[in-house]
Write a structure and sequence with these properties.
The structure is a single chain. The chain is built from ten helices and nine strands. With 248 residues, the protein is of the alpha/beta class. The strands form two sheets. A six-stranded mixed β-sheet has the order 5-6-7-3-8-9, with helices on both faces. It has a three-stranded antiparallel β-sheet with strand order 2-1-4, covered by helices on one side. Strand 6, helix 7 and strand 7 form a beta-alpha-beta unit. It is globular and about 50 Å long.
Length: 248
């Protein structure tokens, strides 16, 4: 297995409260991996620590075999929708063009090719007709599609997404998973915090189960098991997997 993202001994604490402890995990290149676990398991913290958005108390992160500082341009991040200030007065197309900042620089001029790329990314997520809308005027699902379009504009090799399906309608979820599978099929790596156990087997190739620490990881067929789920969720798990097909 070729590894796109590797963490070793990753530990993060807020004040004196540990969020994740000594997490070891490898994320396969060219695959879609779900990070699952109960609320408060440290799933979002793991992504944020990988990106350097929260300080690590201990541990190492390697992305394509290199430290973060050397490969930032190869990573795209879609945060939780709830963490974004949607009242900021900007148009949809401007949000997508923010994904081009590494090409443009802080004061770089947006040229025709940049606008064409932004339009293409919006079309890929079904939002081309909304390019001139204010971002705050969109529904939650539409906003999520726009942020995915911004990530696409970065033309990254590794896509990190924090609950991309949270609070979206069925049509938006279908559109997003189609785009993500297209990225995977093109050889890109997708890692997503995910909460719906029923869709893990249908959406993802691999899975990391965690609850403050790594419980199990690997291909969905072998790691997404009743025993691993019970160890991860304990008495809070009401559903059980069915014959390797996720949960019913």
């Amino acid at each position: 297995m070729t590894v796109a993202l590797s963490v070793r001994g990753l530990t993060v604490a807020y004040a004196q409260n540990p969020a994740i402890t000594a997490v070891d995990a490898d994320f396969a290149a060219g695959a879609m991996t779900a990070i699952i676990g109960p609320n408060g398991a440290g799933k979002s913290t793991l992504l944020r620590a990988v990106l350097g958005l929260v300080p690590r108390r201990a541990g190492e992160v390697a992305i394509f075999g290199a430290p973060l500082a050397r490969v930032r341009g190869r990573i795209a991040y879609v945060p939780q929708r709830a963490s974004v200030d949607w009242d900021f007065p900007t148009r949809v197309t401007d949000v997508v063009q923010m994904g081009l900042y590494r090409q443009l620089g802080l004061l770089g001029r947006v040229h025709r090719r940049h606008r064409a790329l932004a339009e293409d990314c919006l079309a890929r997520v079904g939002m081309a007709d909304y390019a001139t809308r204010q971002i705050g005027q969109l529904s939650g699902g539409q906003q999520q599609r726009v942020f995915l379009a911004r990530a696409l504009a970065q033309e990254a090799d590794l896509y990190l997404l924090d609950e991309p399906f949270a609070g979206v309608d069925a049509a938006t979820e279908t559109a997003i998973i189609g785009v993500l599978k297209g990225l995977r099929d093109a050889g890109r790596t997708v890692v997503a915090v995910h909460h719906d156990l029923a869709t893990v087997a249908g959406y993802f190739d691999r899975v990391l189960l965690m609850n403050g620490r790594a419980i199990a990881q690997g291909p969905v067929a072998t790691a997404f098991t009743p025993d691993a789920l019970q160890a991860t969720y304990g008495g809070r798990l009401a559903l059980a997997p069915t014959a390797g097909q996720g949960v019913a």
